[in-house]
Amino acid sequence: MNTILNAKIPSGALHEKWDNYKADAKLVNPNNKRKFKVIVVGTGLAGASAAATLAELGYQVDAFTFHDSARRAHSIAAQGGINAAKNYQGDGDSINRLFVDTIKGGDFRSRESNVHRLAQVSVDIIDQMVAQGVPFAREYGGMLDNRSFGGAQVSRTFYARGQTGQQLLLGAYQQLSRQIGLGGVRLFNRTELVDVVVVDGRCSGIVVRDLLTGEITSHAAHAVVMATGGYGNVYFLSTNAMNSNVTASWRAHRRGAMFANPCFTQIHPTCIPQSDESQSKLTLMSESLRNDGRVWVPKNADDVRPADQIPESERDYYLERLYPSYGNLAARDVSSRAAKRLVDKGHGVGPLKNGVNLDFSAAIARLGRDVVQERYGNLFQMYERIAGEDPYSTPMRIYPATHYTMGGLWVDYELATTIPGLYAAGEANFSDHGANRLGASALMQGLSDGYFVLPYTISNELAPLLNKTIPTTDHPAFVQAEAEAHERFSGYLNVKGTRSPDWFHRELGKIIWDYCGMERTQQGLEKALSELPALYGEFQKDLRVTGTGESVNQTLEKAGRVDDFFQLGMLMCRDALDREESCGAHFRSEYQTDEGEALRNDQDFCHVSAYNSTGDPMNPDLVEEPLVFETAQLATRSYK
Amino acid sequence: MRLINDLKLKVWRQDGPDAAGHFESHTVEKVSDEASFLEMLDQLNERLILENKEAIVFDHDCREGICGTCSLMINGQAHGPQRGSTTCQLHMRTFKSGDEIVIEPWRAKAFPIIKDLMVDRSSFDRIVEAGGFITAPTGGAPDANLILVPKPVADAAMDSAACIGCGACVAACPNGAASLFTGAKISHLNVLPQGQAERYKRVEAMVHAMDDQFGSCTNHGECSSACPKEISLDVIALMNSDFRKSKSKNRKALSRS
């Protein structure tokens, strides 16, 4: 078990570290690359870009996705844009400023060296994606257009209408498809990871389940990359796609990969509020809407008049009032909590009084309907489809919802987990966003990890393994893992209880949302930690999965995912209880300033909390990685 | 919120690719008009599990109309009666109490049924693998602003790139053709300056991969009206025009022009 964490940060000044690393990294001769097999799990931005680039270099790549096609990964749903320190607008941006904004946005709970590298390679990402044919928005002269985003005072966000994630993913998917066509990558679709195999302390491969036939098979490799996304669906209701899950990361964790900062989960301020009890998914409205929309609630909590009948003097534009310099563009966690407080006080709008207004009437008056339509047309249309109201004439109703998880598998500077040979990229790792992620930074990180970081660090790892034999899939560790996987899935089928996996998922989600959501307290977390094992016990005794394990069975798939969410949920609450401070998205009510802002405790908590699995997520083994800030100034975050 | 009562569902059930299928009838006694169509199916599945029956298999994921995973012929229309939207964006307020709703999988030879309402659309991936990309290996790209793209060109590329690969165009086509899907990908890349180097190689390879798997296009136009992203039929014209050029022009002459 790991007791000390070595982040392997290269020597030199912050801005020289990545160059120094690359200069010293070991390389694999082009003719030898084909002797190495690399497995990539997940084909979102991080996975597809890593698989394609590694195959271009000459490695044999096997890529796995549980989707029917690599193009479906949830990266596709990102709307607003991707940040890069290009300074094309000449408005004072630089790599250093993007670095500082990201560190500050993360409330000083991320690792300086990783974040600085992210800012450095951000500029290469835009070049690469343009070369691949991503149709970014353009000015009339043909140059790239930018927009501004929450948490920044420069315009550095590149976008493709409201579908930036889709266009970037299609770019990476096209590059992956090219490699599939050339034979560099073998793609296993509709195949889900069920275990990670470790032999003599090294990751030797994975065990997967074919979702169409239920067949369980093993795959051996020299290195394995987890690009399997985040775990926001632990809340049941979130903006994540229905199938996004924590299973791959969690299985790796159980086999020895440490899990870092599980309680750092981000609540996005602009989602469409829940409309009824049976809802299964929440929809995000891009944060870019806050560029032109004004957020308000009625000053009088009992005011039920339609928005257009409430005079200006009786409206509370609370973000503009509380945070005059950032206004409606205050960081995500700050905006979310402000909305929650007003709704909790009864100022909510809509039939269930569970939202706040996002009003475009001033923007329409100022810019004209056509300009607003050009900027946000598809988002307005999406809102209208779901809510049945026209945002050109009535304000949108929005409310925060779970969106992104900053926590994830612990990785060092090389994106290696604590199992040698196992890497984690994109949302699946914890490294770059600290306690809160800024808008338009998830796409940047996914592509940075996949295109520009992993190809270097994996070569460095593989070079010494040349001509050494690696365990094959008939090794007892693979055989054992396969047997356990069979047992696991037949186990769910054999409980024959009375409740569906979705029922348990919904109940689990309520506990996590109530006690480990936007605001957390010691009392609440202790309550959650007493309720979770009981509910999990019920899950193990009273689950019902109909059908069989030999053909497509979505109920069975769900059961496995809910099982892992339960265990993760316990670890999240443990971590949130342990972190006795408020930072970024982690808001402990006991630790706040007189004005209700997050109160960090740098004396005791300026560290990454990483957990070893003990087999019991209620009692994990905590190891701290101290965070040292040599360049960025540890300061209280303010958006006032 | 309003309740919709007594919906009569006829749902296609099929155990596997080679099994015989049949319609199964279900009554949905009440559902909120705020619920999405897929949430209505979720609720039906919950009930089936409680009745110890196997849940209906259907593909879905993002539930916000962008991933292209969901499908379904609803009363004979791909993605249902609402124009320009996917099944997951369809809400129950579109229906009224007592309605009969027939739910079938995509119907096309190139999309074999896997189980119930789930089909195999990997034939689309084969088309993209044949040439639906720009060869730009990681690392060598010039500064992004060195490639100027006039706004109308970027906008036109984006209009085509909006395709989500759901397959509604094929399902709606009486010939089971994939011209709208293939044309959209070709138009996205072939209008951009970055896409010129491989323009004719691309169209040739993709059209051949399409013809190997799908039916022929007769410009029926059902594809475009079923398309959740309302991709224009123009993309088919561009594809055909480029394909013709790829066949008739001497490649060497082309490289000198």
Q: What does the model show?
A:
The complex is a heterodimer of chains A (640) and B (257). Chain A has 640 residues and is an alpha+beta fold. Among the domains of chain A are: 268-403, Alpha-Beta Complex (Flavocytochrome C3, Chain A, domain 1); 476-607, Fumarate reductase/succinate dehydrogenase flavoprotein-like, C-terminal domain (Methane Monooxygenase Hydroxylase, Chain G, domain 1, Up-down Bundle). Chain A contains 17 helices and 19 strands. In chain A, the strands form 5 sheets. Chain A has a 5-stranded parallel sheet with strand order 5-2-1-9-17. In chain A, strand 18 and strand 19 (621-626) form a beta hairpin. The model of chain A has no long low-confidence stretch (mean pLDDT 95). Chain B is of the alpha+beta class and 257 residues long. Chain B has 2 domains: 3-115, Beta-grasp domain (Ubiquitin-like (UB roll)), CATH 3.10.20; 121-256, Orthogonal Bundle (Fumarate Reductase Iron-sulfur Protein, Chain B, domain 2), CATH 1.10.1060. Chain B has 9 helices and 7 strands, in the order ββαβββββαααααααα. Chain B has helices at residues 37-50, 122-131, 151-161, 168-172, 179-190, 199-213, 222-226, 234-248, 251-256, and strands spanning 3-13, 22-32, 73-74, 77-78, 100-104, 113-115, 118-119. In chain B, the strands form 2 sheets. In chain B, strands 2-1-5-3-4 form a 5-stranded mixed sheet. In chain B, helix 5 (179-190) packs across helix 8 (234-248). The radius of gyration of chain B is 21 Å and the shape is elongated. Chain B starts with a strand and ends with a helix. The mean pLDDT of chain B is 95. The chains are: A alpha+beta (640), B alpha+beta (257).
